[in-house]
UniProtKB/TrEMBL annotation:
The lineage of its organism: Bacteria, Pseudomonadati, Bacteroidota, Cytophagia, Cytophagales. InterPro entries: HATPase_C_sf, HATPase_dom, Sig_transdc_His_kin_sub2_dim/P. Keywords: ATP-binding, Coiled coil, Kinase, Nucleotide-binding, Phosphoprotein, Transferase. GO terms for molecular function: ATP binding; protein histidine kinase activity. Residues 15-42 form a coiled coil. Signal peptide: none annotated. It catalyses: ATP + protein L-histidine = ADP + protein N-phospho-L-histidine. It is an enzyme of class 2 (transferase). Its EC number is 2.7.13.3. Residues 134-233 form the Histidine kinase/HSP90-like ATPase domain. It comes from the Bacteria. This is histidine kinase.
Length: 238
């Protein structure tokens, strides 16, 4: 009987010890989440300041090419800001909801380039909503370049503009951005990093290399860009 009492007492002590340790771990995890959320909030605020400075700079420029370059830079900063905004507004501090991010990004760019929502077909098809932040940030910047390219060049003579954005998980992660414009010529797209390519094209190529990704251009009822990130570059999302 004494042995049983001692055994039960020992088990109870172990249970209490494990519960205290688990509570401490949970408390530390909550603190880490709070710190990460605060960090993303500060980064987002700093990016907002940079965006405001670029907006002010535009007012002092007369050259149209310089104005456009600064505005495009502002849009790139805003794209990064949207990602950090998503990170601090949710409990998931290490992953980004790409459905929400890509929808916000496309709608903001649509407004920036003067398109009306009721006269534009925006199609978002996402079957991989949550993506690890280390992949989401470069992929988000690539998406910004491809979507911006469509709004700038694809719809000059298109009666009913359409933009399809897809993100699919099949042997890796595939981002698709397709417009219904006249299509790009071979000379308009430089898939490699070289001096002939525009800054946006070099940025896409560099970020694709960072992700070990491939990017292809398909002329299919307009222009289709397809970015494929191999599965070995993807981290499981909790």
């Amino acid at each position: 009987m004494l042995l049983l009492t001692l055994l039960l007492g020992g088990l109870f002590w172990q249970f209490q010890s494990i519960r205290r340790k688990r509570s401490e771990i949970e408390r530390q995890a909550d603190q880490l989440k709070t710190l990460m959320r605060e960090l993303h909030h500060r980064v987002k605020n700093n990016l907002a300041i940079v965006s405001s400075l670029l907006r002010l700079q535009v007012r002092h420029l007369d050259d149209e090419k310089a104005i456009e370059a600064v505005r495009v830079s502002q849009q790139r900063v805003h794209a990064m800001s949207l990602i950090h905004q998503r990170l601090y507004q949710t409990d998931a501090v290490s992953s980004v909801n790409m459905r929400e991010f890509l929808t916000d990004l496309a709608q903001n760019l649509m407004q920036a380039y003067g398109f009306e929502a009721n006269r534009f077909d925006l199609q978002i098809a996402i079957d991989q909503p949550d993506v690890d932040v280390d992949v989401a940030i470069p992929m988000g910047l690539i998406a910004n370049e491809l979507i911006t390219n469509a709004f700038k060049y694809a719809y000059t003579d298109v009666e009913r503009p359409r933009l399809h954005i897809g993100l699919h998980n099949h042997n890796g992660l595939t981002l698709e951005v397709q417009d219904n414009g006249p299509g790009l010529a071979d000379t308009d797209w430089q898939p490699q990093v070289n001096r002939q390519a525009s800054f946006g094209q070099r940025l896409v190529a560099t970020l694709s290399q960072q992700l070990d990704a491939t990017i292809e251009l398909v002329r299919q009822n307009g222009t289709l860009f397809r970015l494929h990130i191999p599965s070995n570059r993807l981290q499981p999302v909790e």
